[in-house]
């Protein structure tokens, strides 16, 4: 199902529509067939205008079995179109999901426009000449359905036939059968009278440039590569596979051609240690993971704080706690990212707002890590990681260089007049310490996790020195605020009294909900945070400029609590932890209620 959805998305992107996707699949490698937990779905929103989410509710539901129909029926509005494969609607399969009667016959679907088709039978007949087993022949039903939908929505077909030819090049019979099923599905839509209309969705107006479809994980991988290249450093990825972050490791492991070195470690702790060791040796150390992995890496991240070395930690968040729901999305690692280490161990935290924004956020994480000699956590989530959008290929020459500024000679003089290297002597502007690559003659120095003397880096248990170092490390992170842009507010009318403030992937639902609210004649302002620690310098003034601040999050109000404690401004937390993106329609209705209640209070 994921392959089918991805192919329809690819053709739609090539056609020029704006797109947003939401893949949704079980955590089990082989989920129980025909059961509700085993349903794999793929939602695609495409349009001839700018869109920012995969949408709340689909217009068309394609259900390949009873479980898929039951699992997704509640999302389909009355009057929606259902295309359903009737082949698996047996008493046994219906009983598996708790249906005593067949919904295709008992009136359950009377409020919908239903096209009940034997897709399996049609596909099997289309590939009969290839001599496939019954099981293999029935598997081509997805390609038959894809062909039918390609006709229904006037999608190009050449890309899919070329894809199938390449994917199954070593299995000619499977290749030819899938292509035949795809073409048969298209011909079925074209020659039968099952569908009353065929839809035309024009390309979306976009800035000129070269575009491609990209997922958040792929964009993150590209951003890390560009960040390292701009710093003139080798990218070293120390990682351990974990859902939903593994695709970053998969992509970077292919990129030896641009000097990327990847190390798949035996566990999360070893992965982080290897990445930090690579930074000590002069590479840009990166480690990728999800929430449980960040917990295991926390001691190494603290070591990075003490040694003051660059380390980029990418946390692709998923639903927790513990193993939680590995393939579902959440934003519940914010407090872990900001505070989840022993002692006073401050680090910068950034969050990407969209799949394409993962590219820019990854570069920004590399820049801050190198410039300020610090670990940086970049937050993404499962929704962004697996979702796809059109991405305009950037002008790489326009991306600023990152200057690591390695120490190459002594930077101090002893009382006796002898030149020496002081590894913890700091840049007065950034408070970043001197960074010498091991083996540089005359710049030998001690490294490790025990507290450092302020200049020499020698082991120190002096109380005053410890306080000085703790406050200096904090001041270094606090000082990054001068190097990040102010938060921008979208308040086109200038009359809004309610501010919707978000971070990470809530950008899409917030933006979409605000557009709908404004169409009702109500005013609402929006703002979004990329930098979560430190926060933009003007944020306090922005918050105090509105009567009510609503913070939607896929957690129990973590950012809302931080803002209220830091700025002493009343914050309205809007929390959803369902493993899915925040509903646009729910957010719209609830914010309208906030706006209207505020108006009533002031009458």
List keywords for this structure.
603 residues; 21 strands; 20 helices; single chain; Pyruvate-ferredoxin Oxidoreductase, domain 3; five-stranded mixed β-sheet; 4 domains; Rossmann fold; alpha/beta; seven-stranded mixed β-sheet
Structure description:
The chain folds into four domains: 1-191, Pyruvate-ferredoxin Oxidoreductase, domain 3 (3-Layer(aba) Sandwich), CATH 3.40.920.10; 212-398, Thiamin diphosphate (ThDP)-binding fold, Pyr/PP domains (Rossmann fold, 3-Layer(aba) Sandwich); 412-482, no CATH class; 489-602, Rossmann fold (3-Layer(aba) Sandwich). The chain has 20 helices and 21 strands. The strands form six sheets. A seven-stranded mixed beta sheet has the order 8-7-9-10-12-11-19, sandwiched between helices. The chain has a five-stranded mixed beta sheet with strand order 16-18-17-20-21, with helices on both faces. The model has no long low-confidence stretch (mean pLDDT 96).
């Amino acid at each position: 199902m994921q392959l089918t959805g991805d192919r329809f998305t690819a053709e739609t992107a090539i056609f020029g529509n704006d797109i947003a996707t939401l893949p949704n699949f079980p955590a089990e490698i082989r989920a129980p067939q025909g059961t509700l937990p085993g349903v794999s779905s793929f939602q695609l929103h495409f349009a001839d205008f700018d869109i920012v989410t995969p949408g709340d509710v689909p217009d068309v539901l394609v259900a390949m079995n009873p479980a898929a129909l039951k699992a997704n029926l509640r999302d389909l509005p009355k009057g929606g179109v259902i295309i359903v494969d009737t082949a698996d609607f047996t008493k046994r399969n219906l009983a598996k999901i708790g249906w005593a009667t067949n919904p295709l016959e008992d009136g359950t679907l009377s409020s919908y426009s239903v096209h009940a088709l034997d897709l399996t039978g049609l596909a099997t007949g289309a590939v009969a000449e290839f001599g496939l087993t019954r099981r293999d022949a029935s598997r081509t039903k997805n390609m038959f359905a894809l062909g039918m939908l390609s006709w229904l929505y006037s999608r190009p077909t050449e890309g899919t036939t070329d894809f199938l030819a390449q994917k199954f090049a070593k299995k000619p019979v499977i290749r030819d059968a899938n292509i035949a099923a795809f073409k048969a599905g298209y011909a079925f839509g074209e020659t039968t009278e099952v569908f009353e209309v065929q839809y035309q969705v024009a390309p979306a107006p976009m800035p000129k440039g070269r575009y491609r479809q990209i997922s958040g994980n792929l964009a993150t991988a590209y951003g890390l590569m560009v960040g390292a290249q701009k710093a003139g450093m080798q990218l070293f990825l120390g990682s351990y596979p974990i859902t939903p972050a593994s695709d970053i490791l998969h992509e970077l492991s292919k990129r030896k051609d641009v000097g990327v070195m990847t190390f798949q470690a035996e566990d999360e702790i070893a992965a982080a240690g290897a990445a930090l060791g690579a930074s000590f040796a002069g590479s840009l150390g990166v480690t990728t993971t999800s929430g449980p992995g960040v917990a295991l890496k926390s001691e190494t991240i603290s070591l990075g704080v003490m040694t003051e070395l660059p380390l980029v930690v990418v946390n692709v968040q998923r639903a927790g706690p513990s193993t939680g729901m590995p393939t579902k999305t959440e934003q519940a690692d914010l407090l872990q990212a900001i505070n989840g280490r022993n002692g006073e161990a401050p680090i910068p935290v950034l969050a990407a707002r969209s799949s394409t924004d993962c590219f820019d956020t990854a570069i920004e994480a590399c820049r801050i890590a190198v410039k300020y000699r610090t670990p940086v956590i970049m937050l993404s989530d499962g929704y962004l990681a697996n979702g796809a959008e059109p991405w305009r290929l950037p002008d790489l020459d326009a991306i600023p260089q990152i200057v690591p500024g390695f120490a190459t000679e002594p930077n101090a003089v002893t009382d006796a007049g002898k030149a020496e290297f002081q590894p913890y002597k700091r840049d007065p502007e950034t408070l970043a310490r001197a960074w010498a690559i091991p083996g540089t003659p005359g710049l030998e120095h001690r490294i490790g996790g025990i507290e450092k003397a302020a200049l020499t880096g020698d082991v120190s248990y002096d109380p005053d020195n410890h306080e000085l170092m703790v406050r200096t490390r904090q001041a270094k992170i606090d000082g990054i605020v001068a190097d990040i842009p102010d938060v921008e507010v979208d308040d086109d009318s200038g009359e809004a009294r309610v501010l919707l403030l978000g971070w990470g992937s809530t950008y899409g639902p917030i933006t979409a909900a605000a557009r709908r609210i404004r169409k009702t004649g109500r005013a609402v302002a929006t703002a979004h945070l990329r930098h979560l620690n430190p926060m933009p310098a003007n944020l306090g003034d922005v918050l105090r400029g509105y009567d009510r601040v609503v913070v939607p999050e896929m957690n129990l109000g973590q950012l809302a609590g931080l803002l209220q404690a830091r700025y002493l401004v009343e914050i309205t937390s809007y929390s959803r932890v369902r493993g899915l993106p925040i509903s646009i329609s729910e957010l719209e209705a609830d914010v309208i209620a906030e706006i209207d209640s505020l108006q009533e209070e002031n009458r």
